[in-house]
Amino acid sequence: MKTNERSGTQPTASDVARAAGVSRATAARVLGGYGYAGSEARELVLNAAKRLGYQPNQLARSMATGRTKTIGVVVADIENLYFARAIRAITDTANAKGFDVVLANTDENVDLERSAVRVMLAKRVDGLIVSPASSVEVDHLVEARKMGCPFVLLDRRVPILQADSVAIDNFAAAHEAVSAFVGAGHKRIALVSNSSLQGGQKYLTSPVRERLEGYKAALQDAGIRVDSKLAIFGAGDNDNLARKVRNLCQSEERATAFLAVTSAVALVILSVFREVGLSIPGDVSLICFENADWTIAVTPPLTVISQPIKELASAVTERLIGRLEGDLTSPSKETLLAATLISRGSVNTPSLD
Amino acid sequence: MKTNERSGTQPTASDVARAAGVSRATAARVLGGYGYAGSEARELVLNAAKRLGYQPNQLARSMATGRTKTIGVVVADIENLYFARAIRAITDTANAKGFDVVLANTDENVDLERSAVRVMLAKRVDGLIVSPASSVEVDHLVEARKMGCPFVLLDRRVPILQADSVAIDNFAAAHEAVSAFVGAGHKRIALVSNSSLQGGQKYLTSPVRERLEGYKAALQDAGIRVDSKLAIFGAGDNDNLARKVRNLCQSEERATAFLAVTSAVALVILSVFREVGLSIPGDVSLICFENADWTIAVTPPLTVISQPIKELASAVTERLIGRLEGDLTSPSKETLLAATLISRGSVNTPSLD
DNA sequence: CTGAAAGCGCTAACAA
DNA sequence: TTGTTAGCGCTTTCAG
Description:
The structure is a homodimer of 353-residue chains.
Chain A: H1 13-20, H2 24-32, H3 39-52, H4 58-65, E1 70-75, H5 81-96, E2 100-105, H6 110-122, E3 127-130, H7 139-146, E4 151-154, E5 164-168, H8 170-183, E6 189-193, H9 206-221, E7 231-233, H10 238-250, E8 257-260, H11 263-276, E9 285-289, E10 303-306, H12 309-324, E11 334-337, E12 340-342
Parallel strand pairs in A: 1-2, 1-3, 3-4, 4-5, 5-11, 6-7, 6-8, 8-9, 9-10
Antiparallel strand pairs in A: 10-12
Chain B binds a DNA duplex (16 and 16 nucleotides) through helix 2 and helix 4.
């Protein structure tokens, strides 16, 4: 049986060549858009292709060229507004540059992340954009690099990797928010996160760690003692976190201002406030990270820290594509983007109980 | 130069074979997990593979088998909570069945959808899950089918395609919500959507169309005249939609109850209410589709229609994989899942102005 | 400008 | 059980 037989349903470049009456190489050249081709041959091929409904096979193309024009994106939580927006922006800028995107979700779980990276390597993506779940267990990223698959870190930094990264200046953002509280007269200011503090600070992701540091620094700069009881960490479990917040609200020396590390945390805090009868901004003040749409629909509208997600995503994508297109040598770079404090109605002078 | 030379960085199955001292076929058999292999040969190969850091090349594998074990997901808006959750659930169940997922976003734009589908076909995904932006322009889906790439519709139905689909029973859900309003004594009930009504109802996506129909039917069942001024459609533009809602709120015969087609629309409505000084549930009642997290953080908590997204996504994925694994013949099936009305604090008896 | 032929890394008959 | 031999559909020298 000849190799050029009809193989089933999908027409191949050979089929087109035969239908056009030219050689496979010529057909392939015009279909693939490379090499020379006479104008009449081109015409013939294009017609035949249209007639047969030819669709190029990217697998075969990648197989031959060794490049897939695809970048893999590995994020911790696609249901998180912040990452959803980032993914959206990443695919937009990648597409604009001729790259496709494949996505994987890790649920903040290192094992899932490891296997996601493995799958991407097997699919031979040209490069990776990753928001690593851990700043310690990064062996799979080291391996990716070793296999010649460059990566850029999204939103999270991992110093030991010496990798390219694009993130928010979380230290400055937290510092600014806390300073705003201080400026309004607050002294007992709480930081609330749903990350687990297990194993110590170094196991926190860099954004959370840096926000904590910015928080402490701002207090110190204002001459306020840092009270560890005011820094609350959950464990991904909202009920548990709510309990801790409730305790703090009902203690003798309750906080008068709260900085929520994410909008999801702010939601938990709001429900506790309602439950214990604290009202914003009369009784307590609140600022949260992430400018979620709903924050202007509550009463009062929330003062938030808005992050330039689109810029972040474009920057990370462009950095990676830069690497892919030849810039293998320049040293790794950590890019930090500034967040913006948007003042709305949730910060006020503390009431004197 | 022999073909088995070290080609650069990535070791191939041949490299492993040579290092293990067996034939390429044997090595391939154990590495690929198919065919027979003696236990000592297997041992040898596995060791060599580990030593060289062998990673299989999926491209080559797919090339040879004709299957990629990958499904393409094409959604209208990844930033939309509803789709984000669906994507998450789809990847989870696909992974559990040994499939990878590649994702594309279309922004509700048919041209982007067309090109996304084309890319997926070029990547030779085994099948597609699509929430089509249009129920009219579906030529690319017809083409996909013709090329032997099965697809299942997610959340949206397109009768003319005669395709498998899994969606919510939107008619019943809207009917139930409106009946709840009626039961509380409302007569002037509005439906608000940000879809464009341009070109008539048939251009609406099926969920919006069916919600509109359920809304009308419920009114008729209650003996209430359907007033077209009470069905508000935007055009994706929030400011414009807000203006229309404001007009309705300030007109002589304002509505006393609002059914929002999405949580994003509810946000727009809430801001208008605040602006014109209408309070829930004293002055107006509100129900919205989508059980977004924030709906319990506003005052009062919103009565919502909760959709079983996870079940929806599992069902759609399983249906597709079923098709992929041999069930090519059975007729297409439209699955409808029931939504649930969750009563919270935003529905009340209408005030008498 | 066009055609012939080799090869990307793997799977899959078939023979030994 | 193992090895041999064809391909999968495309790109890419290298001659003609």
